[in-house]
């Protein structure tokens, strides 16, 4: 067998394996939860509500689709789930642990929390919860709170500085322990809010990608909740009774721009339930030729490719003014007119018909 044939067989096998992974992640969760009655199942925490089971199935499918669409998790991955104690990261961890059980590939999940030493932070909550659930985890202790407070001027928001410090610590630790993917709990509404923040205040069209290679190319970040609406996460977290820890740093600041954007999105969602879904779809359907970024589309080289077909204006009359100057330019002073064709009475033509 030739080397080329071996390479071809490897490519085919990889494609078939990838197809199997995609199929299982998007369908096994349906099979696992497609049951009748009020039977209890693993990961249900004894919840018998039919509404909960329907919501659970929806979220598992949406996470599976995101993993499938962006090839977020592969065989042999060690997925480091960054858990803050908020509803989003708890939900992400819960669903990934379920998918780990049913996926046809082997991957591991480890939870990591960065204890930033905020005042009154209940340090015992996360270790106790994770240990009780049998979830392998690390708690990193680092006083970034004092650093943020010292470098951010009074009256300014802490989000940017806090986020940079947190990212640096978590990214470095992921490489230290050999984690191959870093899973973040950002959901669909977070992605949309970031888009509008950049649009309104940053002068750029960008959001949070579902999958991202870090600037130093040392880590791959994934956002498996990219297709999940925040309102569904709120409902899910309430059903599951996660031990939510409120943020005492940025959460205590008023008039944050992101909070204002979130309020705007919620108002839109209440008034027009399909609007947010449509906006997120737009992020997946970008047409560079219809925007104005010269780096994404070559506007300068656009040229016509006209044919010799003669097309006359179809209407009643053409008025000509200052015909001498038209003649100087080399333009017709008595352009021909074609009588309106009634065959288009029920359909508006985009251009005038070709003359036979």
TrEMBL record:
GO terms for molecular function: 4 iron, 4 sulfur cluster binding; ATP binding; magnesium ion binding; sulfurtransferase activity; tRNA binding. It is found in: Cytoplasm. SUPFAM superfamilies: Adenine nucleotide alpha hydrolases-like. It holds the Pfam family ATP_bind_3. Pathway: tRNA modification. It comes from the Bacteria. Residues 79-242 form the tRNA(Ile)-lysidine/2-thiocytidine synthase N-terminal domain. [4Fe-4S] cluster binds at residues 159, 162, 250. Gene3D superfamilies: HUPs. It is an enzyme of class 2 (transferase). Binds 1 [4Fe-4S] cluster per subunit. The cluster is chelated by three Cys residues, the fourth Fe has a free coordination site that may bind a sulfur atom transferred from the persulfide of IscS. A motif (PP-loop motif) lies at residues 84-89. GO terms for cellular component: cytoplasm. GO terms for biological process: tRNA thio-modification. Its cofactor is Mg(2+); [4Fe-4S] cluster. It catalyses: cytidine(32) in tRNA + S-sulfanyl-L-cysteinyl-[cysteine desulfurase] + AH2 + ATP = 2-thiocytidine(32) in tRNA + L-cysteinyl-[cysteine desulfurase] + A + AMP + diphosphate + H(+). Keywords: 4Fe-4S, ATP-binding, Cytoplasm, Iron, Iron-sulfur, Magnesium, Metal-binding, Nucleotide-binding, RNA-binding, Transferase, tRNA processing, tRNA-binding. Belongs to the TtcA family. The thiolation reaction likely consists of two steps: a first activation step by ATP to form an adenylated intermediate of the target base of tRNA, and a second nucleophilic substitution step of the sulfur (S) atom supplied by the hydrosulfide attached to the Fe-S cluster. Catalyzes the ATP-dependent 2-thiolation of cytidine in position 32 of tRNA, to form 2-thiocytidine (s(2)C32). The sulfur atoms are provided by the cysteine/cysteine desulfurase (IscS) system. Homodimer. This is tRNA-cytidine(32) 2-sulfurtransferase. It comes from Moraxella caprae.
């Amino acid at each position: 067998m030739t080397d080329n044939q071996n390479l071809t067989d490897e490519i085919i096998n990889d494609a078939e394996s990838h197809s199997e992974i995609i199929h299982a992640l998007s369908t096994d969760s349906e099979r696992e939860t497609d049951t009748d009655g009020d039977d209890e199942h693993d990961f249900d925490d004894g919840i018998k509500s039919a509404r909960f089971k329907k919501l659970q199935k929806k979220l598992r499918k949406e996470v599976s689709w995101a993993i499938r669409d962006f090839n977020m998790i592969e065989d042999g991955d060690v997925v480091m789930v960054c858990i803050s104690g908020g509803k989003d990261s708890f939900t992400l961890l819960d669903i990934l642990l379920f998918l780990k059980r049913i996926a046809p590939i082997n991957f591991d999940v480890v939870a990591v929390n960065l204890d930033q030493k905020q005042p009154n932070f209940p340090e015992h909550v996360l270790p106790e919860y994770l240990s009780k659930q049998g979830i392998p985890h690390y708690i990193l202790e680092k006083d970034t709170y004092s650093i943020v407070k010292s470098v951010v001027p009074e009256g300014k928001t802490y989000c940017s500085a806090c986020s940079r410090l947190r990212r640096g610590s978590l990214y470095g630790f992921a490489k230290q322990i050999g984690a191959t993917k870093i899973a973040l709990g950002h959901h669909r509404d977070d992605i949309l809010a970031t888009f509008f923040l950049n649009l309104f205040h940053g002068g750029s069209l960008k959001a949070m990608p579902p999958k991202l290679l870090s600037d130093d190319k040392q880590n791959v970040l994934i956002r498996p909740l990219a297709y999940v609406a925040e309102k569904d996460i709120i409902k899910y977290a309430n059903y599951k009774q996660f031990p939510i820890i409120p943020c005492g740093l940025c959460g205590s600041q008023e008039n944050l721009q992101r909070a204002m954007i979130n309020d705007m999105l919620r108002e839109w969602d209440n008034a027009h339930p399909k609007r947010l879904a449509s906006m997120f779809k737009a992020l997946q359907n970008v047409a560079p030729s219809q925007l104005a970024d010269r780096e994404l589309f070559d506007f300068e080289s656009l040229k016509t490719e006209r044919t010799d077909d003669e097309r006359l204006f179809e209407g009643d009359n053409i008025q000509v003014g200052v015909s001498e100057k038209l003649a100087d330019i080399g333009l017709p002073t008595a352009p021909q007119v074609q009588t309106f064709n009634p065959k288009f009475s029920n359909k508006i033509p985009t251009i005038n018909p070709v003359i036979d």
